[in-house]
TrEMBL record:
Protein name from the UniProt record: Multicopper oxidase family protein
Spans traversing the lipid bilayer: none
Similarity annotation: Belongs to the multicopper oxidase family.
Species, as recorded: Terrilactibacillus laevilacticus
Gene3D superfamilies: Cupredoxins - blue copper proteins (2.60.40.420)
Organism phylogeny: Bacteria, Bacillati, Bacillota, Bacilli, Bacillales
Residues in Plastocyanin-like domain copies: 45-81, 99-175, 205-314, 378-509
Amino acid sequence: MILSKFIDELPIPPILKPRWKNQFYTYYEVNMTELRQSLHSQLNDTTVWGYEDGYPGPTIEVESGEKVFIKWINNLPDKHLFPIDYTVHGAHRDVPDVRTVVHVHGACVEWESDGYPEAWFTKGFKQVGPYFRKQIYRYDNCNHACTLWYHDHTIGITRLNIYAGLAGFYLIRENRERSLNLPSGKYEIPLMIQDKTFNKDGSLYYPKQPEKPIPELEMSITPKFIGDTILVNGKVWPYLKVEPRKYRFRLLNASNTRFYRIKLDSGQLMYQIATDGGLLEYPVGLKEIMLAPAERADVIIDFTNLEGKNIIMTNDAPAPFPGGDKPDPNTVGQVMQFRVTLPLSSVDTSTIPAHMIPVPKTKEQSVTRVRCLTLNDNMDQYGREWMLLDNKPWDAPISENPKLGATEIWYLINVTDDSHPIHLHLIDFQILDRRNFDVEKFNKEKVIEYTGPAMPPEPQERGWKDTVRANPKQVTRIIMQFGPFTGLYVWHCHILEHEDYEMMRPYIVIR
Ligand code: C2O
Ligand code: CU
């Protein structure tokens, strides 16, 4: 089904109001419900899952350092919207189908409030997973100003819960950022980009089986989900009316598998000011921006002197990435449209600052441990693709156990043909470099023989990151310091179909 483009206006999620706020802390409650919502005006309303009766959920805005408590409440029905594969770890028939747990992606948070995949809970907290510790999560927000997002993280069904709609923005603000005079208020807009496929009746489609079905199973996980329709903030191919002035857009790829390479068909530059973990040292002018699942790019787009123009945000990233088909330029090759039709309401005094904040390089001399971790492609008993980290399933004993305060370098050795967005909870890291290596030799002899020079990260990647594209047949090196909390966290591929099966590992920060 091909839906008309640019006939619905871009929705902007509301800002969530706290239930309670005083000088010490802020308290929110967030309900998860099933609801019907219009995702496109030519479609019947679609049944989705939302936070506070909306998909995407409301935007949570906090100050850096603010103490925030959130009670995430599961008020969903007992029946899931999508086919569950009961052979997937953590999703066996001995647990209820509808389970949830919420992770604030990129948050610096105690482990009990991090949304550990096995800390799930059901409606009324009637049943909980083995690692469930508390009903009310505590967030210390020790991050600097940045664009985070919250989403479901339940073991074995994360791909289905997020696809159903369980995702929203979580913004951290700070005076240091305010003083930069960036476009703000109604000129600052979050854009959550996702792909979905619809059935004729307007309901969401998620496959029961992979392309090559597994005859022994009624329902089987698929190694990738590629939708045929693009949505931004929960609307199919929306448009946004803008004034001829500068805007700040917080781009987030919240898709299951799809990568985006974003461009503007006007050919103009986007000025990237921040990445996953906050502001860069300098804005970087870019013609195209690559976004893997969970990556964020905060950009300024200047519509000055473009009165009357329509500008389309396009995407030309193959799906899956990098080996898949090029997107059809008439459908998934387009994301949304900007219409410069609003009158300028006041003089645009916002700026694209020449310098923003210092991003001190994490020192390699302080490294106490180096870990070599492979990204592997295996096969399970049904002949399905089974991607693992360091060749270990989720249940294998914990092997990544950094000490509190320790600085480590991780070598992400990708022997697969896919690019995997690798995400670590709790901390932000820096990308050191990427380097091609001889995969065959590595597979045979377990030694890394580089076949090319070390390539530094792209200029827009030289900030704080929590998700990095580990490209095929490359070693990607990241450096990070673990803290300020100890406890049990996870690291994983953010392609949700990989994460669920079982490209995810626990890690522990120890004292
Ligand atoms: Cu965006 Cu472990 O998650
Ligand atoms: Cu992956």
